[in-house]
Amino acid sequence: MAATVAEPKQSVYFFAYSEENEQLQQIGAYLNANGAKLGPFTPDDKLKSALEIVKNSSVLAKCGADAEQIYNSIQSVIVCFRTDDALQLIKAWTEVLLSDVFKGEGWQSHPGYAVHVYSNLFQFYAEPSIKFFTFRALLEVASRAKLVSTIDTSLTTIQSYIADWALDTTQQRELLRTLHNALLVDNRPRDAAEVMTSLLRSYKASDAKEAEPDARECVRTAIIDPTSFSFDHLLQIPAVQHLESVDALLYKLLNTFISGTLADWVEFNKANPKYVKEVLKVENDAPLLKKVKILTLISLAEKQKNIPYSLIQSSLDIPSEIELEKFIIDVLQSGAISGKLNGVKKEFNVTGFEPRVFGRAEWLNLREKLKRLSANLKQAKKHVELASHPELIAGFYH
Question: What pTM, to 2 d.p., does this model score?
Answer without folding.
Answer: 0.77
